[in-house]
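Lab manual, section 2.4: Encoding a predicted structure.

Procedure: take the sequence of the chain (242 residues), apply the prediction step described in section 2.3, and record the output as structure tokens. A sample record is shown.
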Amino acid sequence: MRLLVTRPDEDAGSLVELLAEMGHEAVSAPLMEIRLQREVKIPDTPYQAILITSANGARAIGKRLEIARLRNIPVLAVGGASAEASREAGFRDVEAAGGDVTSLVDLALRRLEPGAGPLLHAAGSVVAGDLKGDLEARGFSVDRVILYEAIAAEHMPEAASEALKSETLSGVLLYSPRTARIFSALVREAGLEDRLRPLAAYCLSQAVAEGLAGLPFARVHVAREPSQAALLELLEPEFRPG
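Recorded output:
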């Protein structure tokens, strides 16, 4: 298949390689740009644990001068990709949740104690769910530090427009509700809705699929769990739409 990849450049490279290994061709057209917030300071606090909710958050904190004093603090990551990025950033004690904020809250409740110290959430300017609120409601203290901003594209990237107009695409991969909403807005702005009629949308979660409401995709597939492995399973030959 020929697939449109909408992930930021920082995430797209490894995904394009995985798709190639599976026999698919990828057209990379990032819908967001990641900008680090270097002026933001991470408090010099004895944190019990660090919460990572995206690979970009892991990469952002890994580039900070403060990383030297943070490396030995346990990390709870939202899923496998963010856990791998955390290890690559230099963290030694990393555990992955099931791929969404709810599973990360559950993991924190199992592994951590409210009285054992505050938590650091390495976040972006836009967050999915209310990790801080959910944990503080259970007695934890959470410092959310915004380390990066994900800037939405103002217009449909040329690579995406050309691929849609060429009618050679098989589908679109979408990893977040925000990306789905951006895609929806840009495809409408460009007048490309009809080009979606023969295509499939492959969504990481039901919330992602809901961001595509009203678009005329031939099929909208949702991963069985919010992980990249489960999303890519939808592309396997043995997958049959339910």
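Check your result against the sample. The mean pLDDT is 90.
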